[in-house]
Amino acid sequence: MNEAIASLDTRLAVLALDAAELRQQAIAANIANAGTPGYRPLAVSFEDQLGNGLQAGRDTGAADLAGIAPRLVPALPAGIAGLAGAVPVQLDREAAALAQNAVHYQALVKALSHHYALLSTAVGDGRK
Amino acid sequence: MSIDALQAIAEVAPVAQLAPAAMPAWTAATAASPGGTGFGALVAQGIASVDQDLAASAAELQSLASGQAGSLHRTMAKLEETRLSFQLFMQVRNRVLEAYQEVMKMQV
Known about the structure:
Chain A: Keywords: Bacterial flagellum, Cell projection, Cilium, Flagellum. The structure holds 2 protein chains of 2 kinds. Chain A contains 3 helices and 2 strands. By secondary structure, chain B is an all-alpha fold. Chain B contains 4 helices and no strands. In chain B, helix 3 runs antiparallel to helix 4. Chain B starts with a helix and ends with a helix. About 18% of the residues of chain B have low confidence. Classes of the chains: A mainly alpha, B mainly alpha. At the A-B interface, helix 1 and helix 3 of A face helix 4 of B.
């Protein structure tokens, strides 16, 4: 793929879409297993990794997305991290997170679409 | 393809600024080097890359149609990038043809 087209921006947006997709699956699993005894809710670790990667990129001058990938991690409520035993699923929070994630996914798709439209204008001689 | 061309120019640019007399020597060396970074090799490489992209996106489309696509957004991004690559390729082709016709019309 041409490096100018598959740029850092597009790779970033696609990675973020990967994360949103995985988060949708994690929240769906949490809601489906809300009544399962001993179930540990899942969350997705992505934004903190991305933040570190971009910061490292700013320091060294070249952003490196190689090691960054959305991962499933056990969700631990703030403050009682490391607590042994199962944390119950909070259905209202999960439903809100699901809605938020859906909006986030739509926004990312729209952003990627705008980015491609810009490239398309550049490639198409100023025409659409 | 365009990036390779840019890199080639970037490598040459400082040389050209320092010693303009060195330019013809460089041009002759590049054009003559067999299978090297000549213009023909550059174009062939670009066409091969676009062809590879087209084949890859065709495979993605098939897996989407048969319901085996890993993720929808990756398939769509791939298709869009292939479209842009192909469009860029067509533009370069048009410019090269224009230049060729210009040279053909030139009075010797």
